[in-house]
Amino acid sequence: MSRDINNKFWDEELETLPREELEKRQLADLQEIVKFAYENSPYYKRSFDEAGVKPEDIKTLKDIQKFPFINKKTQRDTQGVGSFLGELAAVSEEDVVFISTSSGSTGVPTMSPFTKKDFDEFQDTESRWFWQIGMRPNDRYVHALNFSLYVGGPDVIGAQNLGALCIWGGTLPSERLLFVLKTYQPTVIWTSPSYAWQLGEKALKSGIDPKKDLNIKKIIVAGELGGSIDATRKAIEDIWGAEVYDFYGLSDIFGACAAMCEAKDGLHIAENHILVETIDIHTGEILEPGQVGELVFTTLRKHARPLIRFRTGDIGRIDNTKCSCGRTHGRIHILGRKDDMFIVSAVNVFPSDIEAVIREQDGITGEYLIRIFERDFTNKYAVEIEKNADNPKSDDEVAAEVTAALKARIGVKPARVVVNPDGGLDTRSEHKSRRVIDERTLDYSI
Fold it and tell me: Per the domain annotation, does 7 fall within a domain?
Protein backbone atom coordinates (compact mmCIF):
# COMPACT_ATOMS: atom_id res chain seq x y z
CA MET A 1 0.00 0.00 0.00
CA SER A 2 1.51 3.32 -1.08
CA ARG A 3 1.06 6.33 1.16
CA ASP A 4 1.18 10.04 0.49
CA ILE A 5 4.29 11.17 2.35
CA ASN A 6 2.69 14.58 2.82
CA ASN A 7 -0.26 13.09 4.72
CA LYS A 8 0.40 13.52 8.44
CA PHE A 9 -1.60 10.37 9.29
CA TRP A 10 -0.55 6.73 8.96
CA ASP A 11 -4.19 5.62 9.06
CA GLU A 12 -6.28 8.77 8.83
CA GLU A 13 -9.65 7.09 9.25
CA LEU A 14 -8.57 5.29 12.43
CA GLU A 15 -6.65 8.18 13.95
CA THR A 16 -9.43 10.74 13.43
CA LEU A 17 -12.46 8.62 14.28
CA PRO A 18 -15.20 10.60 16.02
CA ARG A 19 -15.19 9.73 19.73
CA GLU A 20 -18.57 8.00 19.49
CA GLU A 21 -17.38 5.72 16.66
CA LEU A 22 -14.07 4.98 18.42
CA GLU A 23 -15.89 3.92 21.58
CA LYS A 24 -18.34 1.82 19.53
CA ARG A 25 -15.36 -0.12 18.11
CA GLN A 26 -13.81 -0.38 21.56
CA LEU A 27 -17.00 -1.91 22.95
CA ALA A 28 -17.20 -4.54 20.21
CA ASP A 29 -13.55 -5.51 20.79
CA LEU A 30 -14.00 -5.47 24.56
CA GLN A 31 -16.96 -7.83 24.40
CA GLU A 32 -15.02 -10.20 22.15
CA ILE A 33 -11.77 -10.22 24.18
CA VAL A 34 -13.50 -10.68 27.55
CA LYS A 35 -15.45 -13.62 26.12
CA PHE A 36 -12.27 -15.05 24.57
CA ALA A 37 -10.36 -14.68 27.85
CA TYR A 38 -13.14 -16.34 29.85
CA GLU A 39 -13.39 -19.29 27.49
CA ASN A 40 -9.66 -19.87 26.97
CA SER A 41 -7.70 -18.63 30.01
CA PRO A 42 -7.86 -20.78 33.17
CA TYR A 43 -7.14 -17.75 35.33
CA TYR A 44 -9.89 -15.54 33.92
CA LYS A 45 -12.45 -18.35 34.04
CA ARG A 46 -11.73 -18.86 37.74
CA SER A 47 -11.41 -15.15 38.53
CA PHE A 48 -14.64 -14.10 36.80
CA ASP A 49 -16.59 -16.96 38.37
CA GLU A 50 -15.32 -16.03 41.83
CA ALA A 51 -16.31 -12.40 41.23
CA GLY A 52 -19.74 -13.44 39.96
CA VAL A 53 -19.33 -11.82 36.54
CA LYS A 54 -19.76 -13.15 33.01
CA PRO A 55 -18.70 -11.83 29.58
CA GLU A 56 -22.39 -11.16 28.86
CA ASP A 57 -22.32 -8.48 31.58
CA ILE A 58 -20.41 -6.19 29.21
CA LYS A 59 -23.13 -3.99 27.70
CA THR A 60 -21.25 -0.67 27.85
CA LEU A 61 -17.60 0.31 28.24
CA LYS A 62 -18.25 1.21 31.87
CA ASP A 63 -19.33 -2.35 32.59
CA ILE A 64 -15.66 -3.33 32.66
CA GLN A 65 -15.68 -1.81 36.16
CA LYS A 66 -17.59 -4.88 37.37
CA PHE A 67 -14.59 -7.10 36.66
CA PRO A 68 -11.62 -7.74 39.00
CA PHE A 69 -8.21 -6.08 38.64
CA ILE A 70 -4.98 -7.89 37.90
CA ASN A 71 -1.42 -6.65 38.42
CA LYS A 72 2.22 -7.69 38.17
CA LYS A 73 1.78 -10.07 41.09
CA THR A 74 -0.99 -11.83 39.18
CA GLN A 75 1.38 -12.32 36.28
CA ARG A 76 4.18 -13.66 38.49
CA ASP A 77 1.84 -15.99 40.43
CA THR A 78 0.32 -17.52 37.28
CA GLN A 79 3.43 -17.65 35.12
CA GLY A 80 4.41 -21.23 34.28
CA VAL A 81 1.39 -22.62 36.12
CA GLY A 82 -0.32 -25.39 34.15
CA SER A 83 1.71 -24.72 31.02
CA PHE A 84 4.80 -22.93 29.80
CA LEU A 85 2.75 -19.79 29.08
CA GLY A 86 0.86 -19.94 32.37
CA GLU A 87 -2.75 -19.54 33.43
CA LEU A 88 -3.26 -16.02 32.08
CA ALA A 89 -2.51 -17.13 28.53
CA ALA A 90 -5.50 -17.81 26.28
CA VAL A 91 -3.75 -19.62 23.42
CA SER A 92 -1.51 -22.65 23.14
CA GLU A 93 2.24 -22.41 22.76
CA GLU A 94 1.86 -23.49 19.10
CA ASP A 95 0.05 -20.21 18.38
CA VAL A 96 2.81 -18.03 19.86
CA VAL A 97 5.50 -16.64 17.55
CA PHE A 98 7.30 -14.23 19.90
CA ILE A 99 7.85 -13.61 23.60
CA SER A 100 9.51 -10.77 25.43
CA THR A 101 10.17 -10.40 29.14
CA SER A 102 10.13 -7.54 31.58
CA SER A 103 13.36 -6.33 33.13
CA GLY A 104 12.43 -7.79 36.51
CA SER A 105 13.38 -4.50 38.17
CA THR A 106 10.35 -4.78 40.49
CA GLY A 107 10.36 -8.56 40.91
CA VAL A 108 10.57 -11.78 38.89
CA PRO A 109 10.72 -11.05 35.11
CA THR A 110 7.35 -11.65 33.47
CA MET A 111 6.78 -13.06 30.02
CA SER A 112 4.71 -11.36 27.31
CA PRO A 113 3.62 -13.72 24.49
CA PHE A 114 2.33 -12.74 21.02
CA THR A 115 0.43 -14.60 18.33
CA LYS A 116 1.34 -13.68 14.76
CA LYS A 117 -1.73 -11.43 14.55
CA ASP A 118 -0.81 -9.80 17.88
CA PHE A 119 2.72 -9.18 16.63
CA ASP A 120 1.68 -7.81 13.23
CA GLU A 121 -0.79 -5.38 14.83
CA PHE A 122 1.90 -4.38 17.35
CA GLN A 123 4.25 -3.45 14.50
CA ASP A 124 1.57 -1.59 12.57
CA THR A 125 1.06 0.54 15.67
CA GLU A 126 4.81 1.23 15.82
CA SER A 127 4.71 2.32 12.16
CA ARG A 128 1.86 4.66 13.09
CA TRP A 129 3.91 6.27 15.88
CA PHE A 130 6.99 6.64 13.67
CA TRP A 131 4.89 8.27 10.95
CA GLN A 132 3.21 10.48 13.58
CA ILE A 133 6.53 12.08 14.57
CA GLY A 134 7.41 12.68 10.93
CA MET A 135 9.51 9.65 9.95
CA ARG A 136 9.25 8.90 6.24
CA PRO A 137 10.73 6.31 3.83
CA ASN A 138 13.67 8.60 3.03
CA ASP A 139 14.81 8.63 6.67
CA ARG A 140 17.74 6.67 8.08
CA TYR A 141 16.89 5.30 11.49
CA VAL A 142 19.10 3.98 14.30
CA HIS A 143 17.32 1.72 16.79
CA ALA A 144 19.57 2.14 19.84
CA LEU A 145 17.49 -0.01 22.20
CA ASN A 146 18.22 -3.33 23.84
CA PHE A 147 17.35 -6.32 21.65
CA SER A 148 17.81 -8.92 24.41
CA LEU A 149 14.28 -10.09 25.35
CA TYR A 150 13.16 -6.43 25.53
CA VAL A 151 9.72 -5.72 24.06
CA GLY A 152 11.02 -2.48 22.52
CA GLY A 153 13.60 -4.32 20.43
CA PRO A 154 11.25 -5.46 17.64
CA ASP A 155 9.82 -1.94 17.27
CA VAL A 156 12.48 -1.42 14.61
CA ILE A 157 10.33 -3.60 12.33
CA GLY A 158 7.67 -0.89 12.45
CA ALA A 159 10.18 1.55 11.00
CA GLN A 160 11.17 -0.93 8.31
CA ASN A 161 7.53 -1.53 7.41
CA LEU A 162 7.20 2.22 6.99
CA GLY A 163 10.06 2.11 4.50
CA ALA A 164 12.87 3.77 6.43
CA LEU A 165 16.46 2.57 6.16
CA CYS A 166 17.02 0.90 9.53
CA ILE A 167 20.26 0.38 11.44
CA TRP A 168 19.81 -2.19 14.22
CA GLY A 169 22.20 -0.54 16.65
CA GLY A 170 21.13 -2.04 19.95
CA THR A 171 22.96 -1.00 23.10
CA LEU A 172 26.27 -0.08 21.51
CA PRO A 173 29.06 1.53 23.54
CA SER A 174 28.95 5.31 23.21
CA GLU A 175 32.10 5.52 21.09
CA ARG A 176 30.75 2.94 18.63
CA LEU A 177 27.33 4.60 18.45
CA LEU A 178 28.89 8.00 17.77
CA PHE A 179 30.92 6.37 15.00
CA VAL A 180 27.68 5.04 13.49
CA LEU A 181 26.03 8.45 13.76
CA LYS A 182 28.97 10.22 12.15
CA THR A 183 29.64 7.63 9.43
CA TYR A 184 26.10 6.81 8.31
CA GLN A 185 24.49 10.19 9.10
CA PRO A 186 21.10 8.81 10.24
CA THR A 187 18.26 11.27 10.72
CA VAL A 188 16.30 9.56 13.54
CA ILE A 189 17.40 7.71 16.67
CA TRP A 190 15.53 6.06 19.56
CA THR A 191 17.09 5.67 23.00
CA SER A 192 16.39 6.64 26.62
CA PRO A 193 16.19 10.35 27.56
CA SER A 194 19.10 10.18 30.00
CA TYR A 195 21.29 8.45 27.43
CA ALA A 196 20.30 10.87 24.66
CA TRP A 197 21.50 13.72 26.85
CA GLN A 198 24.65 11.92 27.97
CA LEU A 199 25.51 10.85 24.41
CA GLY A 200 25.28 14.47 23.32
CA GLU A 201 27.60 15.47 26.17
CA LYS A 202 30.10 12.76 25.22
CA ALA A 203 29.99 13.86 21.59
CA LEU A 204 30.87 17.43 22.56
CA LYS A 205 33.68 16.29 24.84
CA SER A 206 35.12 14.15 22.03
CA GLY A 207 35.14 17.08 19.60
CA ILE A 208 31.91 16.19 17.76
CA ASP A 209 29.26 18.91 17.54
CA PRO A 210 25.92 17.07 17.21
CA LYS A 211 24.35 20.09 15.51
CA LYS A 212 27.06 20.47 12.87
CA ASP A 213 28.78 17.10 12.50
CA LEU A 214 25.78 14.81 12.78
CA ASN A 215 22.46 14.68 10.93
CA ILE A 216 19.96 13.73 13.65
CA LYS A 217 16.67 15.57 13.12
CA LYS A 218 14.41 13.64 15.45
CA ILE A 219 15.12 11.81 18.72
CA ILE A 220 12.64 9.32 20.16
CA VAL A 221 13.01 8.65 23.88
CA ALA A 222 11.32 6.12 26.15
CA GLY A 223 11.84 4.04 29.27
CA GLU A 224 12.14 7.05 31.61
CA LEU A 225 9.97 10.09 32.29
CA GLY A 226 12.42 12.66 30.95
CA GLY A 227 10.85 12.88 27.50
CA SER A 228 7.64 14.27 28.98
CA ILE A 229 9.46 16.77 31.20
CA ASP A 230 9.72 20.03 29.28
CA ALA A 231 13.07 21.04 30.80
CA THR A 232 14.68 17.67 30.08
CA ARG A 233 13.33 17.56 26.55
CA LYS A 234 14.62 21.07 25.89
CA ALA A 235 18.06 20.19 27.31
CA ILE A 236 18.33 17.29 24.85
CA GLU A 237 17.04 19.39 21.97
CA ASP A 238 19.55 22.15 22.73
CA ILE A 239 22.49 19.74 22.52
CA TRP A 240 21.37 18.00 19.34
CA GLY A 241 19.47 20.69 17.51
CA ALA A 242 16.76 18.04 16.98
CA GLU A 243 13.13 17.51 17.91
CA VAL A 244 12.56 15.15 20.85
CA TYR A 245 9.44 12.97 21.08
CA ASP A 246 8.44 10.82 24.04
CA PHE A 247 7.09 7.28 23.60
CA TYR A 248 5.49 5.10 26.30
CA GLY A 249 5.36 1.32 26.36
CA LEU A 250 4.76 -1.62 28.65
CA SER A 251 6.45 -4.98 28.41
CA ASP A 252 3.09 -6.39 29.49
CA ILE A 253 1.39 -5.16 26.30
CA PHE A 254 3.78 -4.09 23.54
CA GLY A 255 6.68 -1.77 22.71
CA ALA A 256 5.26 1.72 22.35
CA CYS A 257 1.59 1.92 23.32
CA ALA A 258 1.51 5.71 23.18
CA ALA A 259 3.49 8.49 21.52
CA MET A 260 3.78 12.26 21.21
CA CYS A 261 2.60 14.11 18.14
CA GLU A 262 3.81 17.52 16.98
CA ALA A 263 1.67 19.25 19.64
CA LYS A 264 3.70 17.54 22.42
CA ASP A 265 0.73 17.80 24.75
CA GLY A 266 0.72 14.33 26.24
CA LEU A 267 1.08 11.03 24.40
CA HIS A 268 -1.64 9.65 22.13
CA ILE A 269 -2.48 6.15 23.30
CA ALA A 270 -3.59 3.44 20.85
CA GLU A 271 -7.20 3.34 22.00
CA ASN A 272 -8.05 0.83 19.29
CA HIS A 273 -5.86 -1.57 21.30
CA ILE A 274 -6.18 -0.32 24.89
CA LEU A 275 -9.11 0.73 27.06
CA VAL A 276 -7.90 3.19 29.71
CA GLU A 277 -9.28 3.70 33.21
CA THR A 278 -7.91 5.86 36.02
CA ILE A 279 -8.36 4.81 39.64
CA ASP A 280 -7.58 6.20 43.07
CA ILE A 281 -4.28 4.62 44.18
CA HIS A 282 -5.58 4.01 47.71
CA THR A 283 -9.20 2.95 47.24
CA GLY A 284 -9.39 1.70 43.65
CA GLU A 285 -12.30 4.11 43.09
CA ILE A 286 -12.89 4.99 39.43
CA LEU A 287 -11.86 8.54 38.57
CA GLU A 288 -13.17 10.75 35.80
CA PRO A 289 -11.00 11.40 32.71
CA GLY A 290 -8.60 14.23 33.51
CA GLN A 291 -8.17 13.26 37.16
CA VAL A 292 -4.79 11.97 38.32
CA GLY A 293 -4.56 8.40 39.53
CA GLU A 294 -3.21 4.97 38.64
CA LEU A 295 -3.71 4.04 35.01
CA VAL A 296 -5.52 0.74 34.40
CA PHE A 297 -5.34 -0.85 30.94
CA THR A 298 -7.46 -3.50 29.28
CA THR A 299 -6.05 -4.92 26.06
CA LEU A 300 -8.73 -5.04 23.37
CA ARG A 301 -7.06 -7.10 20.67
CA LYS A 302 -4.12 -9.04 22.16
CA HIS A 303 -5.15 -12.69 22.27
CA ALA A 304 -2.02 -14.55 23.41
CA ARG A 305 -2.35 -13.11 26.90
CA PRO A 306 -5.26 -10.72 27.33
CA LEU A 307 -4.90 -8.22 30.15
CA ILE A 308 -8.26 -7.40 31.70
CA ARG A 309 -8.08 -4.38 34.04
CA PHE A 310 -4.31 -4.45 34.48
CA ARG A 311 -3.07 -2.01 37.13
CA THR A 312 0.00 -0.52 35.48
CA GLY A 313 1.51 1.12 38.56
CA ASP A 314 1.91 4.31 36.51
CA ILE A 315 0.43 7.50 37.89
CA GLY A 316 -1.08 9.92 35.38
CA ARG A 317 -4.23 11.11 33.69
CA ILE A 318 -5.94 10.77 30.34
CA ASP A 319 -7.29 13.60 28.22
CA ASN A 320 -9.98 12.44 25.79
CA THR A 321 -10.48 15.79 24.08
CA LYS A 322 -9.49 16.18 20.44
CA CYS A 323 -5.86 17.17 20.04
CA SER A 324 -4.81 20.22 17.99
CA CYS A 325 -3.08 17.76 15.63
CA GLY A 326 -6.49 16.41 14.62
CA ARG A 327 -6.16 12.98 16.25
CA THR A 328 -9.02 11.84 18.44
CA HIS A 329 -7.34 9.04 20.42
CA GLY A 330 -6.83 10.10 24.03
CA ARG A 331 -3.55 11.45 25.37
CA ILE A 332 -1.98 10.14 28.55
CA HIS A 333 0.15 12.33 30.81
CA ILE A 334 2.45 10.25 33.02
CA LEU A 335 3.68 11.72 36.31
CA GLY A 336 5.63 8.76 37.64
CA ARG A 337 5.50 5.27 39.06
CA LYS A 338 3.40 4.53 42.12
CA ASP A 339 6.44 2.65 43.44
CA ASP A 340 8.61 5.77 43.07
CA MET A 341 6.27 8.30 44.65
CA PHE A 342 7.10 9.29 48.21
CA ILE A 343 5.39 11.62 50.67
CA VAL A 344 7.18 14.41 52.51
CA SER A 345 5.21 16.64 54.88
CA ALA A 346 1.94 15.42 53.33
CA VAL A 347 3.13 16.36 49.81
CA ASN A 348 3.25 13.70 47.07
CA VAL A 349 6.68 13.91 45.45
CA PHE A 350 7.70 12.22 42.21
CA PRO A 351 11.30 12.01 41.00
CA SER A 352 10.05 13.66 37.80
CA ASP A 353 9.19 16.78 39.83
CA ILE A 354 12.77 16.97 41.06
CA GLU A 355 14.22 16.31 37.62
CA ALA A 356 12.21 19.16 36.12
CA VAL A 357 13.77 21.58 38.62
CA ILE A 358 17.33 20.28 38.22
CA ARG A 359 17.24 20.46 34.43
CA GLU A 360 16.19 24.12 34.54
CA GLN A 361 19.03 25.32 36.77
CA ASP A 362 22.00 27.14 35.28
CA GLY A 363 25.55 26.25 36.30
CA ILE A 364 24.93 22.55 37.01
CA THR A 365 25.29 19.60 34.67
CA GLY A 366 21.75 18.27 35.04
CA GLU A 367 22.86 14.97 36.57
CA TYR A 368 21.22 14.18 39.90
CA LEU A 369 20.67 11.50 42.52
CA ILE A 370 17.80 11.37 45.03
CA ARG A 371 18.11 9.71 48.43
CA ILE A 372 14.97 9.01 50.45
CA PHE A 373 15.47 8.34 54.14
CA GLU A 374 13.83 8.53 57.55
CA ARG A 375 14.36 11.00 60.32
CA ASP A 376 12.21 10.94 63.46
CA PHE A 377 9.85 8.47 61.73
CA THR A 378 9.10 10.83 58.85
CA ASN A 379 10.21 10.82 55.23
CA LYS A 380 13.00 13.13 54.13
CA TYR A 381 14.83 13.46 50.85
CA ALA A 382 18.25 14.67 49.80
CA VAL A 383 19.47 15.56 46.33
CA GLU A 384 22.98 15.23 44.95
CA ILE A 385 23.95 17.28 41.91
CA GLU A 386 27.02 18.20 39.84
CA LYS A 387 28.37 21.71 39.42
CA ASN A 388 29.74 22.76 36.04
CA ALA A 389 33.52 23.07 36.01
CA ASP A 390 33.27 26.73 34.93
CA ASN A 391 30.71 27.71 37.55
CA PRO A 392 32.36 30.41 39.74
CA LYS A 393 29.85 30.10 42.57
CA SER A 394 30.69 28.25 45.77
CA ASP A 395 29.15 24.88 46.53
CA ASP A 396 27.10 26.46 49.30
CA GLU A 397 25.68 29.07 46.94
CA VAL A 398 24.75 26.43 44.39
CA ALA A 399 23.15 24.23 47.07
CA ALA A 400 21.12 27.19 48.35
CA GLU A 401 19.85 28.03 44.86
CA VAL A 402 18.78 24.45 44.16
CA THR A 403 17.16 24.12 47.59
CA ALA A 404 15.11 27.27 46.99
CA ALA A 405 14.06 26.12 43.53
CA LEU A 406 12.93 22.72 44.82
CA LYS A 407 10.99 24.32 47.67
CA ALA A 408 9.28 26.71 45.26
CA ARG A 409 8.30 24.05 42.73
CA ILE A 410 7.52 21.04 44.90
CA GLY A 411 6.42 22.65 48.14
CA VAL A 412 8.90 20.87 50.42
CA LYS A 413 12.62 21.52 50.48
CA PRO A 414 15.21 18.75 50.61
CA ALA A 415 16.95 17.93 53.89
CA ARG A 416 20.18 18.72 52.07
CA VAL A 417 21.65 19.33 48.63
CA VAL A 418 25.09 17.82 48.06
CA VAL A 419 27.20 19.46 45.36
CA ASN A 420 29.66 17.28 43.42
CA PRO A 421 32.13 18.27 40.70
CA ASP A 422 31.31 17.56 37.04
CA GLY A 423 31.45 13.78 36.64
CA GLY A 424 31.29 13.17 40.38
CA LEU A 425 28.02 11.23 40.30
CA ASP A 426 27.89 7.65 39.12
CA THR A 427 24.54 8.07 37.37
CA ARG A 428 25.50 8.04 33.71
CA SER A 429 24.37 4.88 31.94
CA GLU A 430 23.94 3.63 28.40
CA HIS A 431 20.55 2.23 29.42
CA LYS A 432 18.19 3.52 32.12
CA SER A 433 19.91 5.60 34.77
CA ARG A 434 19.37 4.76 38.43
CA ARG A 435 18.58 8.04 40.13
CA VAL A 436 16.64 7.11 43.27
CA ILE A 437 18.09 5.34 46.31
CA ASP A 438 15.56 4.45 48.99
CA GLU A 439 17.32 4.07 52.34
CA ARG A 440 14.15 3.73 54.42
CA THR A 441 13.60 0.68 56.63
CA LEU A 442 9.90 1.09 57.51
CA ASP A 443 7.07 -0.05 55.22
CA TYR A 444 5.81 2.93 53.23
CA SER A 445 3.57 1.02 50.80
CA ILE A 446 0.81 3.18 49.36
Answer: yes
